[in-house]
Structure formats: structure tokens, C-alpha cells
Fold this protein.
Amino acid sequence: MMWTRDEELYLQGVRQHLHQYPELSGQEKQTQAFLKKQCEGLPGLSIQEIAGTGLLATLDSGKAGPCILIRGDIDALPIQEINDFIHRSETDGVSHKCGHDGHATVLLGLVRLWTEKGLEKGCLHFLFQPAEEDGRGAAGVMAEHTKISPQPDKVYAFHNLPGYPLHQVVCRPGSFTAAADSILLELNGKTSHAAEPELGLNPALAMAEIIQAYQNLMIPDPANPSFQLLTPIYATMGEKSYGVSAGHASLHYTLRTWSNEVMASLKSHCESLAKQAADRHGLQLQLSYTESFFSNQNLPEAVKRIEAAAHSLSLKYEERPYPFKWGEDFGLLSQAYGGAMFGIGSGEDCPALHNPDYDFPDDIIETGVKMFDAILEGEFHAG
């Protein structure tokens, strides 16, 4: 299928519709129904729901060959939009500020392209994945991985990148995005009269010791393979009752590393340091994690396929010197199946991701579709 003005306008309309009606992670029912309607009737395509509010569309030739999965995320963020264009969000406090409306649209364009081209061998899965923002989506897909049949040999995804020139392709072998995890510490002691703190167990000193210990674990240089970032997110202690010495405290951190192995070691250190501080002060420690993201590890051969696709389309290609610091739950899929994620520049003046004035640039819908098309051509017609 040649790229036509009609296709461009259709996909632009899809993207703007998705932007206008955003849904939060795990709540993407309207989005799911809308995308399912767009896919229904496309030749040779089977469609099933997955991970609650996601869709898995499959094109299977029934003949031996590569099996590739392409993923596009579909959820929005709890951010109030401040833009005033016609397709602005209709939902108060919710908007597409990470570009998942564009990612889903690119995937739909790819579905339309390959159902028209047809598949001579192998299998193609197109995953419209929910709940990327809180890390539950990929986990939900993997919990139902038997629906993905046959299983993929390789998986690919992309993310739009504000701050990079429009259409520029960005990738790197190895870590592409950080491992990210949030550790929640609850320190339980005993309240007492503020005039007699010795009769209670106040968590203040333990909190201070943990904060200092975590600061000492920092390795903030992104060029260092042992990079570790520990960001304090939330802290509270006691109540605004000035006659009471506090007996409880909460301390939350987000942890980031370049590799899953370093993350496992960092979590172990954090747990040990918190336990030691709690024990020194006679406190009970409750520890948990939330919003966990595996580091996305790009296979070198998949990166070569991405680079070749960019060159075939005469797009500028940059190998990034170190990973992006944000988490991406595609890391769970790339860990399970092998593959790669790449970026496409959204423009040097494009507002940053998660900013209230961000909007996915429709100009790169075509770039995304053609990049994936070239990657798949390479996978299915490699010598």
C-alpha cells in the first residue's frame, strides 16, 4: 500500500479522536472498543482482548517463518490539559501527555498496511497494550501469554522523543530505558507525650539515617554502568498534634538503574539499610514496592535491523551514548522474548513528555508506520 493523503488524514483523525477521549491505566474500555472497531473487517486479522483493556490483533500465514510482535501502548495520564486546540481532552484531569495516542495510531496504521500487503510466511502480532504508565500492562499481557500464539521470536516498540529533531531515529544496543522501582517504607514505633519522648519510640532519627544512607548510595553519572538514582518522593511523620511525640513514619523512594542486575543489588542494599535503622531504634519496618519496570534491553541484532530501516528511509539515525532515565514496561516483554525499542524525534521545540501542553505530533505517524514496515520487511525477507 502506498502512503496516500487519504490514509494520512484517516490516521490523523484516529490520533486526534484518541487524544480527545483519553482513559487512565486499566480503564481503557472506550479506547479498546474504538480500536477494535477500526480493526474489524481487515482481511486475515484475528482480534482478541488481552490484559483486561488491551487488544491483540494477529495476522498468521499458517506457514513456517518469523513470528514478530509489535507493541503500541494506549493509556493516558492524570494530567489536566492546558491546550485549546479542537481535539483537546474532553475528560477533566486526564490527557494523553506521553503520546500513547500516537503510538496506538502508528500501530493501527501498521495493521492496515500489513493486512493489505498480506503475509506469505510466519506470523505478526499487533499488541495494543493498556496500563503502561503504572507498569501493570505488560505484566497483565504476560499473565495471559498463552493467548499470544504462536509465541513471538522478537518484539519491537517505539517511543516519541521530544527534544530530538522531527523524524530522527534514536536507538542503542543494551539498556535503552532504566529499570525503575518504587520502595515504600513504613516505620512503626510508639507515640508518647511530647514532654516524655523517652516513653515512646519516635521514628525521626531512623528516617534521617535512612535518608542519609540512601543519599550515599547515589551514583548519578549516566555514563557509569553502575548508575544508581534514588529519588525521595514522599515522606510523612506523626500528626500536627504538638503534645504528641510521633510513633509512625512513611518514606517513599523511586530507584533507577541501567540494568536489572544492578536494580536487584540496589533493592537489597536499600532493604538492609532500612532494616538496620529500624532495628537500632526499636521500630517495626514494613516494606513494599510499587510501579516496577524492568530495564529495556535491546538485542544488538534487533538494533541493527532498526538502524538499517532508518537508513533505508533516509532518516537521520543516532546511537544514544547512554539509556533514558524513564521506566518503560516494554522491558518485561523484551526480557521475555528479546527485541528492541527505539525512539522517533518529536521535534526540538516539542513540549516535554508529561507536560500539560504536550501533544503528539501527527507528522511522525507516517514515520512510525514506515519504520516498522521497513523493520518487518527486514525480518521477513532477510537472506
Remarks:
- DSSP finds nine helices and 16 strands in the chain.
- Residues 5-175+296-381 form a domain with the Aminopeptidase fold (CATH 3.40.630.10).
